[in-house]
Each structure stands twice: as structure tokens, then as C-alpha cells.
Amino acid sequence: MGCRLVPGKCPLAVLSVIPYSDGTFNQSVTVIAFCPNTTEVHIYKFFTDKWEKLHVLAKHDQIVSGIDWSRSSNKIVTVSHDRNSYVWTQEGQDWVPTLVILKLNRAALCVHWSPKENKFAVGSGAKSVSICYYEQENNWWISKVIRKKHESSVTSVAWHPNNIHLATTSTDGKCRVFSTIIKGVDTRGPQAGASVDWKFGEQIAQLDLSPTWAFGVRWSPSGKTLAYAGHSSMIYFVDDVEGSPAAQNLALRDLPLRDILFVSEKMAIGVGFDCNPLIFAADETGLWSFVRYLDERKVTPSTSKASQLSEALGKLYGQSRQGSSSDTVEPSKPRGGAHENCITCIVPLRKGSESIVKRFSTSGLDGKIVVWDLENHITIPK
């Protein structure tokens, strides 16, 4: 395991690990927590020119499927296929776990801290979402569950900046927005607006845009735009979700996305089975379009359509692009790409109160965590 700096290119660093399920950095972006596709969470720190292991968080009985590290409170939350969640608090040199009661009968699949870090949401295979919060009186983490709204597994969750609205995607193809207001936890604020009038678990919106599985839901920094991806190689941008939703559907020419990140109000990055981040931008009228791939790679042309089809199927089903082909002509191969397999996760790396994301990390099934620096390579519209 090691880190290599890549001067002069967009990827800032590459951390190579075995294929893993999720990972996140701390606030200073010097320490990373990830799951190496096991029941453990490993914490590494970067020293001068290499990454060194600091801690191993071992409490789950099955594979860890989600990790999120709170920026302000410095707490790590983990969820697993064992249907449990733990909140890890650093005490001295040790990380101490606290069990969270999720009330699930199926695997937990994803997790995300709320903007104020007083709640977190857990999506699951039980067709439900657990909203977890700390109860001061009893000194424990408990949850309230949003049930009977999803028709299949919840694949991703995303918090609105107001700390109350929560967006979800599901393998039933739908994107939904719920109210998660909890008495004694949420208070009225300038961003809340009419959100406090909704009851807990009440469905605010349901978007039926995708005919296939839906993934990677995210809000823009202001919360005015919602984006998510469909497994039919589509990406959807929706404005004014709470009022009169106006949707834009973009069809991709290549493979589906798995996750999305807004780097500003008018620019988003999508990652997925193409193994290369895609840049999307909105013009002055609010119309979104695909701009280009972020990781510029030289492609060896191929005259064989069969080879290109074989390569596309190989990428879709996780096979190596270097694999053998029955065709006599070698398939086209991207050269010099940071990732060599599906990118499953994208995480913003902010410092302080930055409103624009200038750096982010991606992780994939090739066992790499890549840090990308946008500042000197593209102009980010505000």
C-alpha cells in the first residue's frame, strides 16, 4: 500500500488498496478511513511521502458497506451488512465505538451525516431509511425509521442544506424526498423555511424519471437543484423539488454512473462504470450538458466494432480491459487513466468554509483512492 504524487496531471494522489466498499477523509484531508472489503475499517495517515496505518476499527460481523467522517465533531459512523451501525469517537489515541439501534431486518447499505452533524441517515435493503440522533437523557444513539415508502433497497441518501430534507434513491428506480424533522433535535433557522411544517417521514416529492435502478443522489450547494443517476446511462437534474419540479434528462453515450458530486451550483462531476470522472455544467439559462471527461487519456483506435462491444461489456461486468479477446484486432484501450475499474464513490475535500469544491477523492473497484485537484485544470463556475 502506498501513495504516489502525480505532478502536472489532474489526479493529485493515488492510494492503492485492495477493492473496498467505502472511504472518507478527515477535515484536514491528511487521514483517511476506508474498508478493505472486509469487516474492518482501516485508518491511515500521510507522512511526508507514504501512508501509514494508525488504527483498525473492528466491531462489525459482516462487510462494512458505508463510512462517513463528520468534519466538525470528528466522529466516524460506520454501517454494515450485519444490520448494525457504530459511531466512533476518538478518546486519546483510541477510537471508542457506540452501538446505534437501527431497527433493521436487512443489510445497511449507505450512511451520511447531516450538515449540522446532529443526525445521520442510513439506507438499507429493508426498503427503509433510519434517521439516527443522539439522545442526551439516556446517553445513546437511537433512530426513527421511515418505512413503507420505498419498494426496494435504498442505494443512496443525501441531505439538503437545511438539515431537514433528505433525498433517497432506490433500486425501484425512484428518487424521493422526505422530511426528517425531529422534535428536540431540529430547530427553526433561516434555511429551514417551510420545512419545519412537515412531519417526520412525510414524503415531500417522488420523482419517477428512471425506468431502472437509481444511484448517487446529491443536492447542489444551495439546495435548489437535485441530481441523481439511472442505470440506463441517464443523469437527471431537477429544480424546485418541493414546489413544481422541473427536470432535465441527459442521456450518456457510454456506461452508467454510480455517484455524483456538485463542485459548485453550476458544475457537477459524475463517476461510474466508465472509470473516468465526467464533467457536467449548466449554462446561463440553467440548461445542463456534458462537457468532457476529467481524466484525459490517449486512446488507441480500433477498427473492430466487435472489439469495442467486447470491451464495453467487460467494463460493465467488471472484467479487465486487458483481458483476452477472440477477435484478431486488439480492442481500444485508454492509456494512463487513474482508475482501471468502476468508480463507486466520490467525496468532496473541503478546507474551512469553502463553498466551491476544488478537490475531491474517488474510489473504485480497482482498489484505488484518487485525489483530484481541479483548481489549475478547469474553470469552476459559481
Automatic annotation (TrEMBL):
<comment type="function">
    <text>Functions as component of the Arp2/3 complex which is involved in regulation of actin polymerization and together with an activating nucleation-promoting factor (NPF) mediates the formation of branched actin networks.</text>
</comment>
<dbReference type="InterPro" id="IPR001680">
    <property type="entry name" value="WD40_rpt"/>
</dbReference>
<comment type="similarity">
    <text>Belongs to the WD repeat ARPC1 family.</text>
</comment>
<comment type="function">
    <text>Functions as a component of the Arp2/3 complex which is involved in regulation of actin polymerization and together with an activating nucleation-promoting factor (NPF) mediates the formation of branched actin networks. Arp2/3 complex plays a critical role in the control of cell morphogenesis via the modulation of cell polarity development.</text>
</comment>
<dbReference type="Pfam" id="PF00400">
    <property type="entry name" value="WD40"/>
</dbReference>
<feature type="repeat" description="WD">
    <location>
        <begin position="147"/>
        <end position="179"/>
    </location>
</feature>
<keyword id="KW-0009">Actin-binding</keyword>
<dbReference type="GO" id="GO:0051015">
    <property type="term" value="F:actin filament binding"/>
</dbReference>
<feature type="compositionally biased region" description="Polar residues">
    <location>
        <begin position="319"/>
        <end position="329"/>
    </location>
</feature>
<comment type="subunit">
    <text>Component of the Arp2/3 complex composed of ARP2, ARP3, ARPC1/p41-ARC, ARPC2/p34-ARC, ARPC3/p21-ARC, ARPC4/p20-ARC and ARPC5/p16-ARC.</text>
</comment>
<dbReference type="InterPro" id="IPR015943">
    <property type="entry name" value="WD40/YVTN_repeat-like_dom_sf"/>
</dbReference>
<feature type="region of interest" description="Disordered">
    <location>
        <begin position="317"/>
        <end position="337"/>
    </location>
</feature>
<dbReference type="GO" id="GO:0034314">
    <property type="term" value="P:Arp2/3 complex-mediated actin nucleation"/>
</dbReference>
<keyword id="KW-0206">Cytoskeleton</keyword>
<dbReference type="GO" id="GO:0005885">
    <property type="term" value="C:Arp2/3 protein complex"/>
</dbReference>
<dbReference type="InterPro" id="IPR017383">
    <property type="entry name" value="ARPC1"/>
</dbReference>
<keyword id="KW-0963">Cytoplasm</keyword>
<dbReference type="InterPro" id="IPR036322">
    <property type="entry name" value="WD40_repeat_dom_sf"/>
</dbReference>
<feature type="repeat" description="WD">
    <location>
        <begin position="57"/>
        <end position="88"/>
    </location>
</feature>
<keyword id="KW-0853">WD repeat</keyword>
<protein>
    <recommendedName>
        <fullName>Actin-related protein 2/3 complex subunit</fullName>
    </recommendedName>
</protein>
<keyword id="KW-0677">Repeat</keyword>
